[in-house]
Design a protein that fits this description.
Oligomer: single chain
Strand content: 35-45%
CATH class: Mainly Beta
Shape: globular
Structural class: alpha+beta
CATH superfamily: Acyl-CoA thioesterase, double hotdog domain
Largest sheet: 13 strands, antiparallel
Number of strands: 13
Helix content: 10-25%
Length: about 290
């Protein structure tokens, strides 16, 4: 198991403080604010800890309200809204310094048989036929800003292989859609709930960038202010987050400094395993 995966599992292994009350930490090194996917993943862990088998998470809806501070722990308070025969509902509030930074509602469902259909997976190259992150880093690393270089120097728990390579240093206007293969960089324990939390962690990494593609800019543009505002996710079918998954993005709309993006996540066999949607701030700085 890679050290990055061990760190991610520790990150998602919240400390139980009291019934319905948990504490999570952030990586020792990172951005100036807590990565949104970390808060999504930890919130789902907290909610899952209060639900008994055979219930499984099938959806979550969250709102980012304040930036998280990496050097301070985050307290997760879970409210048990409902426990029914087929569904259970939880509400989670993530707190720092006595103020909510994120809130989430999560629904859990007892598995059952039913009607079945899905959109087909896009026809894209296999991940083995695409450049690895190490190959891309070797080509572009020296041209990246220092803060991005520091990020890429660290071993990371999620590997990404974009199907359509884009030079974010010299962006051009493109269709608001992209496909990226993703997977954990090492083997994960055989725990379906943990795999959902890891996918929740990974799901926030590239979504908002898609809304910038038609505008000839990128997350590296110092004139752009980006922040996730909400995040919704639905789990449809079984999957393993340490096996390659295709993350297909599109951005139907951007207006009023807000970008809206959707994502479909597929197994290699074409099964649609999860759907994601997000709106985020994409504001041009005026000074």
């Amino acid at each position: 198991m890679s050290s990055a995966i061990e760190n991610l599992i520790r990150l998602l292994d919240l400390e139980t403080l009291e019934q319905n009350l948990f504490r999570g930490l952030s990586p020792a090194e990172g951005w100036q604010r807590v990565y949104g996917g970390q808060v999504v993943g930890q919130s789902l862990v907290a909610a899952t800890r209060t639900v008994e088998a055979p219930f499984q998470a099938h959806s979550l809806h969250g709102y980012f309200m304040r930036p998280g501070m990496p050097k301070k722990p985050i307290i997760y308070e879970v409210e048990r809204i409902r426990d029914g025969r087929s569904f259970a509902t939880r509400r989670v509030v993530a707190i720092q310094n006595g103020a909510a930074i994120f809130s989430m509602s999560a629904s859990f469902h007892k598995p059952e048989d039913g009607l079945d259909h899905q959109f087909p997976m896009p026809d894209v190259p296999e991940p083995e036929d695409l450049p690895s992150e190490s190959e891309l880093k070797a080509k572009f690393f020296d041209h990246l800003p220092e803060n991005i270089q520091n990020y890429w120097k660290r071993e990371r728990p999620i590997e990404m292989r974009p199907v359509q390579f884009r030079n974010f240093l010299v962006p051009k206007k493109e269709k608001p859609a992209q496909n990226i293969w993703i997977r954990a960089t090492g083997a994960l324990p055989d725990d379906a709930g943990l795999h959902k939390c890891v996918l929740g962690y990974a799901s926030d990494m590239t979504l908002l960038d898609t809304s910038l593609l038609p505008h000839g800019t990128s997350m590296l543009d110092p004139q752009m202010m980006l922040a996730s505002l909400d995040h919704a996710m639905w789990f449809h079918r079984p999957f393993k987050a340490d096996e390659w998954l295709l993350y297909a993005h599109d951005s139907p709309s951007a207006s009023s400094a807000l970008g809206f993006t959707r994502g479909c996540i597929y197994r290699r066999d074409g099964a649609l395993v999860a759907s994601v949607s997000q709106e985020g701030l994409i504001r041009r700085r005026t000074r």
